[in-house]
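Contributing new records

If you add data, match the layout below exactly. Sequence lines come first and carry their own label; structure lines follow with theirs. Keep one chain per record. Anything else will be rejected by the validation script.
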Amino acid sequence: MNDHTTKAERNPFNSGSLEHLLSTIHADGTVNLQEYRAIARDADERIERLINLLGTPNSNLTAYMNAMDVTMHLLQLSVLQAMKTELSDTGAAIVRDALIAQVEYLKAGAHLLLRML
């Protein structure tokens, strides 16, 4: 990223508070367990506020929040399963590539859909 890139150009969908949280977490280039839990808690709080803002229980938003928890759990199980196979460096790279591709699929779809708002 160059000095001329604005926050909106990096991610036009993030609020200032989310942008601050993410930049703090990613400042050292890694995410530790405490930081992961903080962002998970923040994400749940944000979606719960949205559900409350809409005034009625929103089954789609609740299901989406729960699906993200399930997705993260399945990603964890997939990594743990792969680790049990004692992968070579190449094998580990293939696993990372496939799992990252799934995350990127979710991110691309989110950007596409959020532009509709």
